[in-house]
Amino acid sequence: MLLIELATGFCLMVGAIFLLVGSIGLFRLPDFYMRLHGPTKATTLGLGAILTASIIFFSFRGDGISTKEILIIWFIFLTAPITAHMLSKAALHVRQKPRADTLNQDRLASIRERRQ
Amino acid sequence: MLDTIALAVSAVIGLSLLLNLGRFMIGPHMLDRLIALDTMYINAIALIVILGIFRGSPLYYEGALVIAMLGFVSTTAVCKFILRGDIIE
Amino acid sequence: MRRMNHKPYIPHPFQFLMLFIVWLLLTHRYSLGNMLLAAILAWLVPIAAMAIRAPTTPVRRPLKAISFFWLLLGDIFVSNIVVAKQVLGATERLRPGFIAVPLDMQAALPITLLASTISLTPGTVSIEITEDHQFLYVHALHVESEKEMVDRIKRRYEKPLKEIFQC
Q1: Helix A43-59 and helix C62-88: axis angle, to 10°?
Q2: Chain B CB contacts of A22 below 8 Å
Q3: Enclosing domain of residue C129
Q4: B42 and chain A: CB distance < 8 Å anywhere?
Q5: How far apart are CA A36 and CA A55, in angstroms?
Q6: Which ipTM was obtained for this model?
Q7: Which residues in chain A touch residue C30, judged by CB atoms under 8 angstroms apart?
Q8: For C116-146, what is each residue's pLDDT tens digit?
């Protein structure tokens, strides 16, 4: 039983750390395109870890294996890239300025118009 | 022991929610607020799942699923609004 | 989509499997009756929804897809740690940039999967695709060398996807 608690606690802590890293990234990175990186990945993985903890916890309570959290994990990993893409599309549309030292930022106009 | 860990982890997630709220306040663009809100949705799901572990009840799962779906749909809807709604092309 | 060269009794095996699993996960009861109901629904719903489906690219190598999934999972985990270091370190030292990745695929589904993969593996977010499906624009948090990054994406993610879909 102690082993289950340890595994659950470990997954919870890993998840919380990644969620915190994603939120810190969102808070302190300087431009919108960079801020996009924190929430789409670190928080997704963090939530995945926390749901894994939930699976471990509820599977060893005698009510059989708990699988329904897989559905949330699946859904989150499916939708995170779509959200990121929609946000970046909107950012290009309203002409968000990237940081001054961004590589290839002279090509933003052609990216927006989906040219080469 | 797990109760202590769950409480500590909730505190960490509360901290990240505060950071998201800070980004939500300072903006500067509407999109920054939108992405902060989206991250808050994810943190809220995590908080609910941890509450379920803390209480030992699997009933909170449905709430988490509903928030996950609402978060995705609302973020995409606002993006679509920004893309199509307010700019004269 | 009028592709009927599959086994006639399950016209859409992929959708069948997907709906079957999702139904079981949602209801969370694994009795024989519930599985039977899941099978009937998973068989019936794709047939009913056939009219609104867009043409897709069939998966040719399912086993490759499974090994790609594990590669992706490992990459998500390892590179998240790298990005965590970058996010917590000095942001002035980061060199963000937009990169154009030339694509060897044309079909919509493989490109969608590639773009999602790029978005999920930390350090890169796919931003936009050119109208003619020739280039995928990617924003990277830290670019050491543009060419190396493009090579890595092509070698590590595009090649397996091309093999899975045989296109």
Answers
A1: 120
A2: 16, 39
A3: 62-165
A4: yes
A5: 29
A6: 0.87
A7: 64
A8: 888 888 778 888 888 888 888 888 888 888 8
